[in-house]
Amino acid sequence: MSKYARVAVVTGANKGIGFAIVRKLALQYPSSPLNNGPLCLYLTARNESRGQAALEALRSDPQLSKAKVLKPDGGLVDLKFHVLDVSEEKRIDAFVDYLKEEHGEIDVVVNNAGIAMDGFDANVATTTLKTNYHGTVYATLRFLSILRPTSTSRIVNVASIAGALSKYPPPLRQRFVEASEVITPDITHAPSAATALMREFEEGVKTGTHEKLGYPSAAYAVSKAGLIAATRAVARSVAESAKKRGSNQYPLINSCCPGWVNTDMSKGRGYKTIDQGAETPVLLALGDLQGKTGGFWQEGKESRW
Predict the structure, then answer these.
(1) Catalytic site residues?
(2) Which of 37-41, 259-263, 279-283 shows the lowest mean pLDDT across its residues?
(3) Pairing mode, if any, of strands 6-10 and 39-45?
(4) Contact at 8 Å (CB) between 147 and 99?
(5) What pLDDT shows up at residue 272?
(6) Would you give the DSSP letter of residue 4?
(7) Helix, strand, coil % (nearest 5) of the chain?
(8) pLDDT at residue 275 above 70?
(9) Residue 41 belongs to what H/E stretch?
(10) What is residue 160's three-state secondary structure?
(11) If DSSP codes are grouped into helix, strand and coil, which group holds residue 245?
(12) Could you identify which of 63, 106, 126, 219 might form a hypothetical disulfide with 7, taking C-beta atoms 3.0 to 4.6 angstroms apart as the criterion?
């Protein structure tokens, strides 16, 4: 159906780390172990004009031009843009339907879209989790439904060390661990325990009881802890489902921290460049992972959560 050997998607990619991930994927794909022919690489963003501007910037990027990796230069990579707001399920559904119609199956997804809001109250908590947790987890499950069922297929969820479990008291920390270890035949139910924790946090913020429950007053950090747990649960369930079918081929699904990157989200305080921040997500998307799935990665290796 598709004229491409592989199809990849990067969300939240009109600037910052997402933009750098698209550029690095294009640069590294031709020499990667996943290269088996032309790649269609989708840059997605909420805003169409900003997304199109980012696409044009990449098409004229000096690094990409010099490397001759893009199709107009005789390369393997075809860059495209598509509008996507991961906080809206109907937008995710529409994009997945488009990809299925256009390509049948896809191969790589990097869920980079995320927000970090100033202040802390019930609105900040709900709004942050809508994108960083609920939207990203929904997108993960929907993209998974059209992902090629092989270990060369990847989902990478960009999380953060801000979601480290050291911030939580032991009983709540254990609940996060248990939520990450859920294995269910119905993959869509795999994040249920993590989602329950996120709902508990949101309700606790509304009632002013979240700190008594053990949650920090930090919506971004909690959203990323939930995302790490949900990612691991989905990965474990996908792997177990394949093994029960007698197959050792299934998509590898991991989360990662790009590091403290100098972007709008860090208000320019980060010490890493966007290209440095893109390194671990791109490794998880294109590298030889030796079957590793469900991990939390930083600095190019699996890390303690």
Answers:
(1) 220
(2) 259-263
(3) parallel
(4) no
(5) 80
(6) -
(7) 50, 15, 35
(8) yes
(9) strand 39-45
(10) coil
(11) coil
(12) 106
